[in-house]
Specification:
α3 crosses α4. With 248 residues, this protein is of the alpha/beta class. It has two domains: 164 residues, P-loop containing nucleotide triphosphate hydrolases (Rossmann fold, 3-Layer(aba) Sandwich); 68 residues, no CATH class. The two termini are 31 Å apart. Strands 6-7-8-3-9-10 form a six-stranded mixed beta sheet, sandwiched between helices. The protein has a four-stranded antiparallel beta sheet with strand order 2-1-4-5, with helices on one face.
């Protein structure tokens, strides 16, 4: 399915005094692959994403995007990454068009007007072009966030709970758009979620984090049975409650 590696993580660690939020994890995301990063609250998912984004500095380990080390080529790599999450709000006092314009400038987009127009059409935002972001519904905001996240046609897309609190129809739209994007562009996608039905529907592979370490990994459709569980949700609950026994 894949022909190259988009993201390569080796021995990634984040330590806060005596607390190790992320503990020596290693994994990769290949071209066109959607990888689910799963685990209970506090498992280290968002910390991992923030280190990949360069928001947090790792205590140890290596992050490579398209074969280049983040610590040495951060500015160059940042132009090839983007991010979306329901909690990562765009400026509420700017309109949809203004928000997209700002992000187009930040990413050095050429043909700005055409790119914004194409994204507003793709995500059905044309009727809200002059509406302030703070007045949008959660579904409309999610479409704006996704349009923003695809502004620079990223090679690596990081999604942290992108459909949390959204109704089923908008959640389905987000899933379909992301799957289409991965298939069309061969971008790598790292997706965190607590919705196991969603993960099984979109992800090629999953990684289960527990207390900052990768406990399990594999195909979301076959991994539960391999550990004596009926489905991904049952496996998720087991990871949250019984990580030591699962690891053994």
């Amino acid at each position: 399915m894949t022909h190259g590696t988009i993201l390569s993580i080796t021995g990634l660690t984040k330590q806060y005094d005596s607390f190790r939020a992320v503990d020596n994890i290693s994994f990769s995301v290949d071209e066109g692959e959607i990888v689910g990063l799963l685990g209970p609250n506090g498992a280290g998912k968002t910390t991992t994403i923030n280190m990949i984004l360069g928001i947090l500095k790792p205590t140890g380990g290596s992050i490579k995007v398209l074969g280049k080390k983040l610590e040495k080529r951060r500015s160059e790599i940042s132009n090839k990454i983007n991010f979306a999450a329901v909690y990562a709000h765009v400026p509420a006092n700017l309109s949809v068009r203004q928000n997209l314009y700002v992000f187009a400038l930040l990413y050095g987009i050429t043909s700005v007007r055409q790119r914004i127009g194409a994204l507003m059409q793709e995500f059905d935002l044309e009727h809200f072009a002059d509406t302030k972001a703070g007045l949008l519904s959660s579904g409309e905001m999610s479409r704006l966030n996704l349009a923003k996240a695809l502004m620079n046609s990223p090679r690596l897309l990081l999604l942290d709970e992108p459909t949390a609190s959204l109704d089923p129809s908008i959640s389905r739209l987000v899933r379909e758009k992301i799957k289409e994007y991965a298939a069309k562009t061969r971008a790598g996608i790292l997706w965190t979620s607590h919705n196991m039905n969603e993960i099984e529907a979109v992800c090629d592979r999953v990684l289960f984090l527990s207390h900052g370490t990768i406990l399990l990994s594999g195909d979301p459709k076959t991994l539960p049975a391999a550990h004596g569980k009926e489905d991904l949700e049952e496996l998720f609950i087991a990871v949250a409650r019984e990580p030591v026994s699962l690891k053994e």
